[in-house]
Design goal:
By secondary structure, the protein is α+β, with helices and mostly antiparallel strands. It has 18 helices and 17 strands. The strands form 6 sheets. A 4-stranded antiparallel beta sheet has the order 3-2-5-6, with no helix packed on it. Helix 14 packs parallel to helix 17. The radius of gyration is 33 Å and the shape is elongated. The termini are far apart.
């Protein structure tokens, strides 16, 4: 077992890249698709053409009608043994259909003893039958009425692929790891890498501990051949009349994967929580649309397996007020991110002088962004996050071209890129101060990176030496990245000026930092990451102090070649000219 400090450090490395997507952004995308789909199917569904029949189908049952319910459990998908007492696990009477009263919701909790066949990847089905009060569900019963009884079958067992074995191992091969880690390493050595990649996925059976049976409150009269496509698969049509029975919906929307119980030889008693309750048409369709939106996101690669459960967990375990605040704040975070990005591009696109700006910080930021991108690529991250990080790398490289001269050297066998300082940067004190600040900060950062890499190599497991290098560098970027902001502070201190900084972009970033501080208090996260959130606050507070300490020099020439006094004089001249022209028109 790893010490808590090791687990915490590993948690920082695993959670940091995933949090770039943001829970709020993913929530916004899912809800937007769900709402769009719902109203699209509601108002723009298939219309009945003039050649279609005008026959309408309706519900065979009436609102508030009393129903009796039987729930049987069987290992066969087709069920006909209604006389088996062993198969009957739940029976209820006089359930009002689509009536929103306390008596319309029934619950039962029990323990189920699985058979040996079920433990060995067997199947088990729940067969639920409803009938009008006083009528039997068995078709062989003399009192059976086809128009008075209906049912549906649902699997209580789900089959999921077994999680891939952890191919990480101790690169040093020492005995510091726990016995479990040693076993994993031995297995990894015994099985060739090619076989582990190519072997087919092993499927395991899991028990669903909760079964929620919802009777949909739907009395809509549909056109015979124009039932909405999202509802049609769930409808149970009576063949003789063409009308439909009440829709039975097995609601698994809130059944998270971590609540499933794996079936094996040790599973001797399994919990089973049963519930029958009504559900409104709107709520039912919303569940269907959200599930479909999850599938669309997964098919496009914008959502990984398990992220849908994390979103649902936010609704299940989170405070509703806190959830609403989180969504609003996440939207503001996205807006400020966009504004900071826009102003950052505008600043560097118009910037003509590197006086007072740290060119080396721009280069280091590019390498930091590249390290994060390679780390995400090595850890099978969704393509949307990869695309965002890749675009960030391209923008940082473009900024190097604005901060320095990039030339292609074709004198050798292989063309090489050569970087040369701009004249506005090399011919003044900025380069001297930048080199001095970067010199000492490099020593500090190199020392911290080496120490953390040795710690990670000794106490943590990695897939390969390449993964160890990437994970160590990425952790250093996240935990010690604020050091890269210090050269600019040092240059400001030496020049006694902050007029060269893109303050509008920094203001938006500071607003985002405040939002990150809020998330640090309300969202569960490792303590190291929580502390790292406040590092940007300290840096920006120092920037604010420098802005107060070093007022803007009106004589300083900006990137457009104008000084503050020149601009004021030009504005005054323009105003006097306009006033003279107005006086002439008046006279």
């Amino acid at each position: 077992m790893e010490p808590p400090a090791v687990q915490e450090a590993a948690g920082v490395r695993r959670q940091q890249p995933q949090q770039q997507a943001g829970v709020g952004q993913m929530l916004t995308g899912v809800i937007r698709i769900a709402v769009f789909w719902y109203f699209a199917s509601k108002f723009f569904g298939p219309k009945r053409s003039p050649t279609q029949s005008s026959t309408q189908i309706s519900n065979l049952f009436h609102k508030g009608e009393l129903l009796d319910m039987w729930l049987y459990v069987s290992e066969h998908e087709k069920f006909s043994d209604f006389g088996s007492e062993a198969a009957l696990v739940w029976q209820e009477t006089n359930i009002p259909y689509a009536a929103w009263t306390p008596d319309s919701t029934r619950t039962l909790s029990l323990k189920y003893q699985p058979t040996e066949a079920l433990k060995s990847n067997g199947s088990l089905y729940a067969h639920v039958f409803f009938a009008k009060s006083g009528y039997p569900p068995d078709p062989q019963d003399p009192e059976y009425q086809p128009l008075a009884a209906f049912g549906r079958t649902h699997s209580i067992v789900v089959y999921l692929p077994k999680s891939k074995s952890d191919r990480r191992k101790s690169l040093l091969g020492n005995s510091e790891d726990s016995s479990d880690d040693g076993k994993i390493s031995e297995v990894a050595k015994d099985v060739p890498e090619d076989e582990k990649e190519d072997e087919p996925a092993e499927w395991k059976s899991y028990w669903k501990p909760n079964i929620t049976i919802n009777l949909v409150d739907d009395f809509t009269r549909y056109q015979e051949n124009a039932v909405p496509p999202n509802i049609a698969p769930y409808m149970n049509i009576e063949p003789t009349t063409g009308n439909y029975y009440p829709t039975v919906f097995f609601n698994e929307f809130w059944l998270l994967r971590d609540k499933l119980i794996q079936l094996n030889e040790t599973a001797n008693e399994l919990p089973l929580n049963l519930e029958v309750a009504p559900i409104s048409m709107t709520k039912w369709q919303l569940f269907l649309q959200i599930d479909q939106s999850f599938q669309v996101h997964r098919s496009y690669g914008s959502m990984l397996e398990g992220e849908a459960d994390e979103l649902k967990r936010v609704f299940l375990e989170g405070n509703p007020i806190l959830l609403a605040v989180t969504m609003v704040v996440s939207a503001l975070h996205s807006i400020f991110d966009f504004l900071a990005f826009k102003n950052d591009i505008q600043f560097w696109n118009k910037n003509k002088s590197m006086e007072g700006l740290s060119a080396k910080s721009v280069v280091v930021n590019f390498f930091c962004q590249l390290i994060v991108f390679l780390y995400l690529l090595d850890n099978e991250t969704s393509w949307m996050i990869l695309a965002s990080s890749g675009i960030g790398c391209c923008i940082e490289f473009w900024k190097i071209g604005k901060a320095m001269h990039i030339e292609v050297d074709r004198t050798g066998t292989i063309p090489m890129l050569r970087f040369r300082d701009r004249d506005s940067y090399a011919t003044n004190k900025t380069k001297e101060y930048d080199d001095l600040a970067m010199k000492y900060l490099t020593y500090v950062l190199l020392f911290l990176a080496v120490c953390f890499s040795i710690y990670s190599l000794k106490y943590e497991r990695h897939k390969s030496w390449y993964s160890w290098i990437l994970s160590s560098l990425t952790s250093c970027v996240y935990m010690f990245g604020f050091i890269m902001m210090c050269p600019q502070l040092f240059i400001n201190y030496k020049l006694k000026s902050v007029a060269h900084l893109p303050w509008r972009q920094m203001t938006y970033k500071f607003l985002n930092t405040i939002i990150d501080d809020l998330f640090a208090f309300v969202i569960k996260m490792p303590i190291l990451h929580r502390l790292s959130v406040f590092r940007d606050d300290v840096i920006f507070l120092i920037y604010l102090y420098q802005r107060w300490k070093y007022p803007v020099d009106k004589k300083r020439v900006n990137e457009f070649g104008f000084g503050g006094e020149d601009e004021q004089a030009l504005a005054a001249t323009t105003d006097s000219t306009q006033q003279t022209e107005e006086d002439k028109k008046t006279n």
